[in-house]
Amino acid sequence: MARRLSAGRQRGFTLIELILVIILLGILSVTAASRLIGRSSFDAYLARDQAITLARQIQLRAMSNLDAEGELDSCLSLQVTSNHFGPPACADTTFSGRAITQADDDITVTGDLPGEVRFDLLGRPYQQDGSGNKTPLCTTACQITFVSRNAQSASICINREGYIHACP
């Protein structure tokens, strides 16, 4: 005897169907929301994260590189200006990191650091003048802020011992 399901018994969706519909709606809403929000609301945070990576990479390379005379390599410094954050031009052939620039990323850099920051063999930031005198930097804490085109901002901090992190 064949079993027949009456039309009255099947009145709803199964639990699996409901879960699949909820998951699909969630995926669609996340995709649509990211398209509507746009990239500009994340630019400052992306620049901050990239800057932390760049600064740490420069710091690590400066800690492990000396030139033939035993001096620290001047190409392994961090350039900080209003329209550039990253390695200097002389490091282009030896450095894999890409600088954050206002022309490419539409980001403005502000902060209380001079144009060039060097790191000693212990990773501490300093500035060197023309006569070779080294002045320690960030004796309290240095803060560098990245401002995107829609005025979102995110900051990184460097302390006197060289710890580079996202500012709260």
Summarize the topology.
Blueprint: H1 15-37, H2 43-64, E1 78-81, E2 84-86, E3 100-101, H3 102-105, E4 108-111, E5 116-119, E6 125-128, E7 134-136, E8 141-147, E9 153-159, E10 164-166
CATH topology: minor pseudopilin epsh fold
Tell me the series of helices and strands, N- to C-terminal.
HHEEEHEEEEEEE
Proportion in β-strands? 15-25%
Counting DSSP H or I runs of 4 or more residues, the number of helices is 3
Q: Care to describe what's here?
A:
The protein has 168 residues and is α+β, with helices and mostly antiparallel strands. The protein has one domain (43-166): minor pseudopilin epsh fold, CATH 3.55.40. 29% of the residues lie in helices and 24% in strands. It has helices at residues 15-37, 43-64, 102-105, and strands at residues 78-81, 84-86, 100-101, 108-111, 116-119, 125-128, 134-136, 141-147, 153-159, 164-166. A hairpin with a 2-residue loop joins β1 and β2. It is elongated. The model has no long low-confidence stretch (mean pLDDT 82).
How do you describe this structure in short?
This protein has 168 residues and is of the alpha+beta class.
Main features:
alpha+beta, six-stranded antiparallel sheet, 3 helices, 168 residues, minor pseudopilin epsh fold, 10 strands, elongated, four-stranded antiparallel sheet
